[in-house]
Records
---
Amino acid sequence: MEEIRRLEIPETNDVIVGELAERGDWVLANVDTNGSWPVATQKVSYRREIVWILPVMKKCFPAVAMKVPSGKDRVKCELFLMRFLSNLAWVKRQGFLVAGFGGGNVPRPMGRDKTFGYSICEEFNLSYFPEPESDSALLALALLREGRGLNHPGYAFLSCYRVLEVALRDGKERGEWISKKLDMITDHRALEAINKLKAQGVENIGEHLRDSGRHAIAHAKEKPIIDPDDPSDARRLRSELPIMDALAELAIEDILGVETSHTVWRKHLYELKGFKDILGPDIVDHLARGEQITEQHMIDIPNINVQLRRHGPYPSLSNLQVKEIGQNGSNFFMVFQLDDEALQIQFKLDFAEERLVFDLINDLSIEDDGTSESAEAIAEVKRFEKEYFGNGELHIYNAETGELISRKDAYIPLNMYVDHKAADKEIAYWKQTAKNRQEKDRR
């Protein structure tokens, strides 16, 4: 299992360093969230711009920030950050509100007197981060972010219902869609609320959500009306809110085409997507059907870097060049190596199952040629092995462009575990061996 890290909330002065301390025209959105937020700074490329996720700090709001690009004004950048935040909220299934905008010559977050009570994580996993283009999808994501962030059950309910209005403009069509989709809801809180309504004799749940929820919150000229002084109204809306949340999520995915993280994980298309782009549609079509690729097909496979998420690069697994390729039906094999051929690593692209197959024990090998460079390379391979066994998430990058080609979910060892002390001892042995060989060569 992965070693447990103790997470510490940083001071503001420890965050505004490096690139974040560079003078410029900065704009930031101070974030108020009811979910978890990282304690580490993250630099994210989003729509060809750089956005910074500033961590939870001891006396300041967490935030998202960017430098104002040439030719853009601050208002457009504020909208850009809000779109980023709505996208982030969708991926993390959380609610984010903005307590205010700020900025200056460096990104200065708003102060807050709150040292405890945070829900924290080390960082956000943004391996999946969609960029929807349609105005309807962007608006729906914004409404759901707001609904999930609000503490008021009535306004949260209304925000979620507005998502359905964005996705389904026609009221009759919307009602029919709700009736069909209630059976597709899997969230246990939403199911409890649905069963409770049925037990109360509510026959048309869609009409109930519209009349006793959406209309009763938005209007006050005719009954039913939500009375802010009546606790029973708030309790009822809070109990039915999970239904609206689940329906809003379904509408964004099914109608507006923005997949949830769970759907992306279930399809796991990210394992082969980058390699499909490299191989091209003609070769991929042959492999998907299990047909032999002819010699007429030229394949130009770039050098790769093999890494693990949240771990530093491995020099001995960087800039690897392809040595050989092979095919067995719908399986495509690639063997990569270092320049000296001492290290070899193999990957199998299984097009029938849409899987990248890598066996740490059998698909990675390195030989010791007696040099200090070889010992250092072996130490790095041993570090990779230790960290991969510790629930590492395999990432393969284009060595020239830095583009992510493929990724796998966390590795879960079966009937085995890593002895961290023994692994560290072996890494230290090879590092010392490299040092001893260097000293011997200098004599």
Note: The chain has three domains: 12-121, 135-264, 268-442.
---
Amino acid sequence: MIEGSLSVVWILAFQVALTTAIGLIATYFISRRHKTLGEGREEARFETLNLANRTLPYLRQGVNEQTATATAQLILDYSQAAGVAIVSGKTVVACIGEGSDHHRAGQSCKTALTDEVLRTGRAKVALNRAQIGCSYPGCSLTSAVVAPLKIQRKVVGCLKLYYKDNQPLTAGQIKVAIGLAQLMSTQMELAELDRKTERLANAELQALQAQISPHFIFNTLNTIASFIRTKPDQARELLVEFADFTRRTFQKRGEFSTFAQELEYVHQYLLFEKARFGDKLEVVYRVDPEILSTVVPVLTLQPLVENAVRHGIGKKVGPGKVVVSAEDQGSECWITINDDGVGMTQEQATQVLRQRRQPHFGMGLSNVNERLRSIYGPDNQLQINSKPGEGTKVSFAVPKYKSGVGV
């Protein structure tokens, strides 16, 4: 009985295996047939995506001789044209293959066809040497497709694919050339967007640095001046510290620094504020040592502390306290600036984060908030808890480790 059952099992297994094999063979021939009917469309799509992926690292750096040459070589291998050239402005930045002996990088465009594309912003096709308009007597190129490269609808250059006598120009080749130019234009727009974003971030950081100076420098210099006769030694120490603080404020820095560096900068800033306020200002630090090496956006902590001193304690009658806290909470660090100053309404707190400039609170908080959101996401934005007469608590969290964030 068992042997009979085993025989049935083996027969069923054989039938399943045979059916699977037949199915695989049929699938193979069907896919081959579809490949023939579809002229390898799936393969073409894959190759196009692969080309886009390979050219992206170059074009995201901007178009120059090095990146354009690498891109032109990839396009030449992909398109199987006789030659490929890339023009930026009215200058040839790369020429690979046929024609590279007389269309060299750094030269101005020599063909009437290219001039027309740059002028009209429309792709053009040349079917003979005369239409190409190359004046070089030994040029072996007989046909070409020239497609414009655009950034935000503005023509910034063109992509040129050249062919010889034994390479008849087809409608498919024309579509490929135009499609590649559009692909390059998109990647160049992304590169320009990256550069604009970086410039904006740098401008905002410089604006934040500049915002620190006028009010703070005036008060600090007045404090030092008042100490020159009564406390000359302290005045001299403060002047040395102030010179170092000013140098650090305006020196060119990266986008990130360690929390220890930010804390040192805050400590130096509070040195001058304590000298100005005297016993009216008390500062307390509660920092877990484990997070001192955590990387945070540069100039994140100081604007929050300045806001607490200037708008919280500075407007309060009597003494006040600022507490700088940093807690280790597993994968995150919670950073809090707490003051027992005059406080504000919840509506004011909301407006502080929404508007870029506030007549009463400056641009420090909104700048810090926008940078935290752009780097870590909305979950890591500033949280403000405040009530009139009860002080203000500003807190945020940063991950201990994040890809792309480092010093």
Note: Confidence is low (pLDDT under 50) at residues 1-40, 357-362.
---
Amino acid sequence: MEFNVSNKQLTIFLDGRIDSNNVAAIEKEVAAIAADNPDCELIFDADALIYISSAGLRFLMKFRKSRGKITVTNVSKEVFDIFDMTGFTKLFDVQKKLRNVSIDGCAEVGSGLSSKVYRIDADTIIKVYDKKVPYYKITREIDLAKKAFLAGIPTAISYDIVRCGENYGVVFEMIANAKNVGESLVADGGANFDVIMKKFAAMLKLMHQTEVSDDYGLPSIKGTWLDWAEGMKQFYTADEFKQLERMILAVPDRKTIVHCDFHSGNTMYQAGEIVVIDMADVGYAHPIFDFAAGSFHNMVRNQSNVQRALSLSADNIARYWDALLVNYFETNDTTKLDALKEIFLAFAYLRAALFPMKHVQIPDESKQNYVASARKNFFPNIDWALKQAAQLQSLEL
């Protein structure tokens, strides 16, 4: 029996028929594989399974009792009907087989470290994820997008998870020929730059003014960053970890929505309105977590991957960052804006120090580069960074 172990997940591949004639042998084989991987989440891939009897369902139930959560993926319609009719869809995480979508010949309209976005036709785009992005993170992003939408944030809602070869993809319906904000800002020589930036800043402010209760089920971003800091213990010393933790804990608690990667490539401009996409990191927290991302992009604006993600040149990223702050804070006072930039830069350095946990799929060499950068820019200046963090208590955000 074929199986695969990756990221603390044990995937066992079921095939053919499972019934009273062969279930005992299958159960014995699966038990041996599971015993060799006791700390892994158990997933059954049913892509090649054509039938499962009540005896087969009882075999799965035994593993649910001993291992807890069980996921069954790539389930055909016929096999799903068996799970559904017997009530097993209430006991297991049963995921239907995904349809395949080809992106051959499709224009790329956006990209990031974990995904690329293609236009399938005039009304449809598809976000194709890196192979290293697990399925649960994709479904989590869709769930978070729906929760943000219910809270009143205009976001593109997906209507289908698909396969693009060996990668997962999510299909979104968009207004015909909509462009991301970055492309729209520079279209026609930047004729609509100021108009779009006002709407862009207003959308960010809308999120930061939208309070959510625990009922929405959005995660705490402050908690997420603390988890990232914990994960960085493999890279940093105990003292460096404490400095990361102190900086995060210095952020005041808030129950308002933050996107955590709000930028010109993760927003669409359609029919004169801003629509937010890429909701993988959305949650509730102080707005500083969004401004940390903006400052981070401005700080590394000469990197080609950042320019590609934001759909802007280095000069336009600087102009866009300045315009965002002017419109969000409704001021042209350079003294005030410079003070804000100083605060946001401190948290941009913090974000960079945690970046290997935000994007765990990046190469080890890149992770080490971020660690080296933190030891150059963040840790030696921790007193300055904490001084900036202390100002958040009185900052009107």
Note: Residues 180 and 313 are 14 Å apart (CA to CA).
---
Amino acid sequence: MATKKKKHLLPGYGLSLGYTLVYLSLIVLIPLAAVFLRTTELSLHEFWAVVTTPRVVATYKLTFGASFIAAVINMVFGLLTAWVLVRYQFFGKKVLDALVDLPFALPTAVAGIALTAIYAPNGWIGQWLEPHGIKVAFTPLGVMVALTFIGLPFVVRTVQPVLEDFSAEAEEAAASLGANRWQTFYKIILPAIWPALLTGFSLAFARAVGEYGSVIFIAGNMPMISEITPLMIITKLEQYDYAGATAIAVVMLLISFVLLLLINLLQWWSNHRHGNK
């Protein structure tokens, strides 16, 4: 008996796939390949010398370290914000829900200037922190604050729909079986929202790694202290050192790719583990 050929839901599957591959190649693959090819102007020794100078290494540590910490903070407080928006009704809820998207719409330079004005030693918040020896503006802490600001919506908007679809009956069943609130959250709710939470974390982290506009104002851009890697790349470009700029960009791409790959593998493992239960 002849087997029927499997039909795809959308017509023109082959043509659509072809357009997709061409589009991704033009927008993503070819530009990235050009970055890698530009580094071939440097020998391996020159490449290593450029990407391992103490100043550049310091920018790696600040950029990836602050991005990771900011993403972790957003994962915790983004979940809390999404929980409040989904589970509670209160006056001003629509306004709070709209404010979550503000970092999406606000130009990054405006965000950086606003954060600097607030956390500067004479700012609204900075003037109260300064007497206690807490400096935010023009320090690595300021970089982390800016990255937390721009990354929050990614976690909230990723987790919020999952919480909205989560059935309250599962919580009621857990409570009827004697589970307390923490056990209900840890055993019932967290496994259901964990993949979305990891996705929000990876999006916030990826955005933070490449952030430039909102950071340069509050960072102060002091070498070895508060200088981020994207600024280091811009500095190389202003010096017409295009090969050096692309060498640093390649390192950023590779590190970001490896970290995001690990996060995706963790997400796949989590889905597979909970799916088999």
Note: The first helix runs from residue 13 to 38.
